[in-house]
Amino acid sequence: MRNSEQGTVIVEGARGSIGQSTVETVYDALKGDIITGKRRPGEFLRIDRISRAYGVGPTPLRETLQRLTAESLVIARGGRGFQVAPLTVAEFEDLNVARTAIEVAALQLSIEHGAEDWEGRVVAAGYILQKWDGQMLARVVDAVERWEAANAEFHAALLSGCPSVWLLRVRQGLASKCDRYRRVAVVSADAPYHEDVAREHGALQEAALQRDAGRACALLATHYQRTVDVFRSQVESGRIETGSDA
């Protein structure tokens, strides 16, 4: 069920017993709303209002907020409650350094160890992403969520041949934090950015399938840095709401 406020998900039946499943459900819902921007950067998360919005009591909600605070997605403000963490250029730059280092290592291993099924997944994901890259360039209404899903699958496919479970686990945590930044950058960016991104996706796929690890890793680093640069320029121009002054 959807609540009218912020379009958030109500956790069915959560007002009954407070179990781990309730905490996990509201955690997933609130984290998803923060990453997608439904909960805006800098927004205060008042326990009474958020409890009603997500259909849960204050105890599982507080546990959820503490977990999100540990992940730096929420800030504890003492007597003022909790607040969605603002977006900052410095944090995105730092996240990108870490993410790029992890993903370059994983991509190197993926290209070295990926078998035919890996190649097939990369080809299939690249084909779908090419379609949605085109839709984004055409500014098709409601294309963003479909593009986000296709983009996530393509990058996961590139790394799916990596045999290191820990590299992929760390990568996932960093990727979800970068999602907040990429989403606002993608929505506010102009056509040249989308053209570059589409071209880079094609080049990445080609380099990976040719087993050219050096070129693929360099392309990946450039690809991620482009979004950081666009985010910075959009913040400087006032086109992105960072929540820093909330």
What are the key terms here?
246 residues, Four Helix Bundle (Hemerythrin (Met), subunit A), 3 strands, 2 domains, mainly alpha, Arc Repressor Mutant, subunit A, 9 helices, 68% helix, 3% strand, disordered N terminus, three-stranded antiparallel β-sheet
What features would you describe in this structure?
With 246 residues, the chain is mainly alpha-helical. The chain has two domains: 65 residues, Winged helix-like DNA-binding domain superfamily/Winged helix DNA-binding domain (Arc Repressor Mutant, subunit A, Orthogonal Bundle), CATH 1.10.10; 148 residues, Four Helix Bundle (Hemerythrin (Met), subunit A) (Up-down Bundle), CATH 1.20.120. The protein is built from nine helices and three strands; from the N terminus they run αβααββαααααα. Strands 1-3-2 form a three-stranded antiparallel sheet. A hairpin with a 5-residue loop joins strand 2 and strand 3. The radius of gyration is 19 Å and the shape is globular. The relative contact order is 0.13. The N terminus is likely disordered.
Summarize this structure briefly.
The chain is mainly alpha-helical and 246 residues long. The chain has helices at residues 20-36, 47-54, 58-70, 89-113, 116-137, 144-159, 165-188, 191-209, 213-236; strands spanning 44-45, 74-76, 82-84.
